[in-house]
Design goal:
Layout (H helix, E strand, L loop, with lengths): L1 H5 L1 H35 L10 H31 L4 H30 L7 H37 L1 H7 L5 H19 L4 H29 L5 H28 L2 H55 L4 H17 L3 H19 L6 E2 H19 L5 E7 L7 E2 L5 H11 L6 E10 L2 E9 L16 H12 L4 E7 L3 E9 L2
Parallel strand pairs: 2-4
Antiparallel strand pairs: 1-3, 4-5, 5-7, 6-7
């Protein structure tokens, strides 16, 4: 769909083939009528016009061919130039010339047919001028009709480019409906200017418009409301039947207006009801089911892909934990031998953190108590380097143990890491506060820190990291409707409030 919207040549291709198809159909009907007229004339039928059938054929062939070529010229050459404001005067002159050409040729064809139907007759100058005047008026009417079509088309294309934003506000409108409506307008325009049979135009107006409206109404209202029912398909069909009954009278009046025949209008309307009820309604149901299945598969694939990407990004950001764990064991033993208590404590906590990443980080869910233990180890490790500095204040109000509650691993630590990364300065007062509590299986987690600008020499100054982006993505995937993340940032402060419904 996006490819269709973003590439105008796709729509131009549809327009061209729609116009060409209508032109070919009109040629087919023209040839068929000409052959039938010729056969009847050869049999000596009475009441048939005396003009040879090839006169009528040639005249009508000239008319529909002229209309087809004029449409292609105006639609694909002149109007795009006008939209781009290119050679405005020249293009306006070309439009006037096209109108004059169509009016002139229509006047000649009309006069020619008059002479052909009544051999030897003479047409007065008044009649001749009247026919030519009507021909130019008809050409002007066709131009107005084409202008109306162009306005509708470009307006629809603009709306189509904004389909996603429009659908947020108006759920009844979607890209498929807009495209179908544009195509419906194209064919209707070509049928009208091609002087198609009134019954053909009426069938297209009634059935085409009814199909577009029923599709949109079914997808957005009827089918979703029917799905929770015990027998959803029967409920859906019943609602479609009621809808068609309500719409019957307006459609009947519209059909009579186009067909200009009460009997034909009524017949087309009854056929439309049957067509919508037995063909379009089940088709909409099938398409909706396929769309639901496709959306479910797409969501599952996005979730799996998102989890894989998030895990890959996180692992890629880590140093090889196996190597570090073995190295830490060596450093810890050395610190104990040298009686370096702060060093040994730091190595021990870092070792616990590395063990957590080795053993539990790859699990889908872990105990919240283990996640809290990891947070405490990280904060304690940071305090080892900040405790000697009185201007740095670190507060941690984290519950010790939460039994029987599980959480996805490594969801909370990125916020704390971000606070220490941007909230610690050895030159200015610093304040970090972390609180965590659980009430009725709902986790409340707050992180606050004063912001400090990185020094120009700091290698991390221009690096944003993947921590917060990664955790936001994981929250959307793992707790799509069970979490609330609020981040407030000022020039001097950064605050995070996270709530998660854990079960």
């Amino acid at each position: 769909m996006k490819d269709f919207i973003n590439k105008p040549e796709n729509f131009k291709r549809i327009e061209f083939w729609a116009a060409t198809t209508i032109y070919v159909f009109l040629l087919f009907f023209l040839v068929t009528d000409a052959l039938n007229l010729g056969l009847r004339s050869n049999r000596g039928s009475t009441g048939i016009a005396k003009a040879p059938f090839d006169y009528i054929f040639v005249a009508n062939l000239v008319r529909i061919t002229l209309l087809y070529l004029s449409f292609l010229f105006l639609n694909f050459i002149i109007v795009p130039r006008l939209i781009k404001n290119e050679a405005l005067a020249v293009n306006i002159i070309l439009i006037i010339l096209v109108v004059l050409l169509v009016g002139f040729i229509y006047g000649i064809v009309s006069t020619y047919l008059r002479y052909s139907f009544i051999p030897g007759s003479r047409i007065s100058n008044t009649t001749h001028n009247y026919r030519f005047q009507n021909s130019f008026l008809y050409a002007s009417w066709l131009l107005l009709l084409f202008a109306f079509y162009s306005v509708i088309k470009y307006t629809s294309l603009y709306l189509l480019s904004k389909a996603e934003a429009i659908q947020v506000r108006f759920k009844f409108i979607n890209s498929v409906s807009l495209i179908a409506f544009i195509i419906w307008l194209i064919v209707l325009f070509l049928l009208l200017v091609g002087i198609a049979d009134k019954d053909v135009s009426t069938v297209w107006v009634i059935i085409g418009l009814s199909t577009i409206l029923l599709y949109s109404y079914s997808f957005n209202f009827l089918i979703p409301k029917a799905l929770p029912k015990t027998k959803p398909f029967r409920s859906y069909i019943a609602k479609v039947f009621i809808t068609l009954l309500i719409a019957f009278l307006p459609m009947l009046l519209l059909a009579m207006l186009f067909a200009q025949d009460e009997g034909a209008g009524a017949g087309i309307t009854f056929f439309n009801v049957a067509f919508q009820l037995f063909i379009i309604s089940p088709l909409c149901w099938i398409l909706f089911k396929k769309q639901m299945k496709g959306n479910e598969e797409l969501f599952y694939l996005k979730k799996e892909l998102g989890q894989s990407n998030a895990s890959f990004d996180f692992l890629r950001s880590q140093i090889n934990p196996h190597f570090l764990f073995n190295a830490l064991n060596t450093i810890y033993g050395t610190a104990i031998q040298e009686k370096a208590e702060r060093t040994s404590e730091g190595v021990e906590r870092l070792g616990d953190m590395m063990r957590f990443m080795l053993q539990e980080n790859m699990q889908e869910k872990i105990s919240l108590a283990r996640e809290i233990e990891y947070l405490n180890n990280y904060i304690s490790l940071q305090k080892l380097r900040t405790d000697p500095i009185p201007s740095i204040k670190i507060e941690a109000g984290i519950e010790k143990l939460i039994n029987g509650v599980e959480i996805a691993p490594m969801l909370l630590i990125p916020f704390v890491e971000n606070a220490f990364k941007h909230g610690i300065s050895f030159r200015e007062p610093s304040h970090i506060k972390v609180t965590l509590e659980v009430k009725e299986n709902k986790l409340f987690f707050d992180v606050y820190n004063i912001k400090h600008q990185k020094q120009d020499a700091d290698p991390e100054k221009d690096k944003s990291g993947i921590g917060l982006i990664n955790v936001k993505q994981r929250l959307q995937l793992l707790y799509p409707s069970k979490h609330e993340l609020i981040i407030r940032e000022t020039g001097k402060e950064f605050f995070v409030h996270l709530t998660i419904q854990l079960s």
